[in-house]
Amino acid sequence: MKNRFTISLFRIVAAAIFICFLGTAQAFELQWFGQAAFKLTTETGKVIMIDPFITKNPKTPKALKDLKKLGKVDLILITHGHFDHTADMVALSEMYDAQIGMNADMGSVVGSLGIVPSNKLIRWNKSGTVTPLGPDIKITMVHAEHSSTIAHKGSVFSGGEPVGYIIELENGKTIYHSGDTGIFSDMKLIGNYYKPDLALLCIGGHFTMDPVHAAYAARDLLEVPMVIPMHYGTFGLLKGTPEELIEALGEDDILTALNPIPKVLVMQPGDIKKF
Ligand SMILES: [Zn+2]
Fold first, then answer.
1. Rounded Cα gap, residues 169 and 175, in angstroms
2. Contact 17, 262 (CB under 8 A)
3. Range list of H helices, the chain
4. How far is the CA of 27 from the centre of ligand 1 (A)?
5. Helices (H), strands (E): how many in the chain?
6. 180 C-alpha to center of ligand 1: Å?
7. Selection from 206, 201, 268, 229 nearest residue 59 by Cα
8. Nearest-angstrom CA–CA distance, 166 and 193
9. 3-state secondary structure of 58
10. Are the beta carbons of 178 and 190 closer than 8 angstroms?
11. More exposed terminus of the chain, fewer Cβ within 10 Å: N or C?
C-alpha cells in the first residue's frame, strides 16, 4: 500500500515537471512533416527548417506540400546527404533566400557540384557552434552514427559525416535533433553537457535506432525529460512505432523517482505543438 502511494506521488511529481516544461509560455513551436522534417519557430519568430523532405514525403499531408505556405524560412539545417533529409533544401533556399547549414565536407561537395551556391552555405563541423540567426540562438553540430552520400545526376558522392544538432533558443530551451543515427555511448555526453529539454529521436529501425534503442538512449544516456519520435512509418522498412517506444521506456516507479522516465509526445505529420 505504501509502495503504491509512493508510486502515485512520484507520478504526480513527474506530471508536475512535465506541466512546468509546457507551462513556460510559448518558448517555441514545432511542426512535424513526417520523417525527420521539422519546422521550428522560435520565441522571436525565427523559422528553422530541419531536414526538409516535404513535397515527396509520403507522410506529409497534401495541404502542406506547397512550400509557399511555410510563409518564411530563415535557416535550413541538414543532418546528412540522403534524399529523405535534403529533398526540398534547394527549393526552400531559393524561395526564402535562406542559408543552408550542414557538415563542412557535405557543403564542399554540394558547393562544387553546383547544387547549392557557396554564398548560401554555412559549413561547419562537430562541436562547432554557429549563430546565423543572432547571438541568442546557438546551433551546435554533434555526432551521429550513420552514413552520408549525395545522389546527383545518376552518380553518388560523399556527403561527409552525418550529424545531429543541439539548438539552444533565446530563452535557454535546448532541443536535440538526432538526425539519422544508431545508438552511441556519447549520447551520455550530449545529455550531460547540453542537457536538452526535448529530444527528437529516430525510432524506425533498419537504418537507425529502433524504439528499444531510442528508449535506452532517452532514458539512460540523454536523460531527457521529453521525446518526440520521428523517422518511422514513412517507408515499409521503418517499422518502429511510438507505442513500442512508450512500452520500452516503461513506467515510473520508486527507482526512477530522481530520474523520471522521459515523456513521449507523439505527433502526427502536419501537427503543430507549442511549448
Ligand atoms: Zn533518413
1. 8
2. no
3. 2-23, 83-86, 89-96, 104-112, 187-194, 211-216, 242-249
4. 28
5. 7, 16
6. 6
7. 268
8. 11
9. coil
10. no
11. N
pLDDT of residue 18: 52
* 3-state secondary structure (DSSP) of residue 255: helix
- The grid coordinates of residue 163 equal 550529424
Find out whether 183 and 213 touch, Cβ atoms under 8 Å.
Answer: yes
State which residues have CB under 5 angstroms from ligand 1, the bound ion. 84, 180
Structural domains in the chain? 2-274 (3.60.15.10)
Say if residues 29 and 275 touch (Cβ distance below 8 Å): yes
> CA–CA separation, 130 vs 112, rounded Å?
22
What's the gap in Å between 87 CA and the centre of ligand 1? 11
Q: List strands edge to edge, sheet with 174-177.
A: 129-130, 138-143, 163-168, 174-177, 198-202, 226-230, 263-264
C-alpha cell at 177: 535533433
For residue 133, give the C-alpha cell.
540567426
Question: Could you give phi then psi for residue 101, rounded to 5 degrees?
Answer: -95, 135
Ligand 1 centroid to Cα of residue 244, in Å, is 19
Query: 75-91: per-residue pLDDT in tens?
Result: 999 999 999 999 999 99
Read off the pLDDT band of 163 (50, 70, 90).
very high
Question: What's the gap in Å between 186 CA and the centre of ligand 1?
Answer: 20
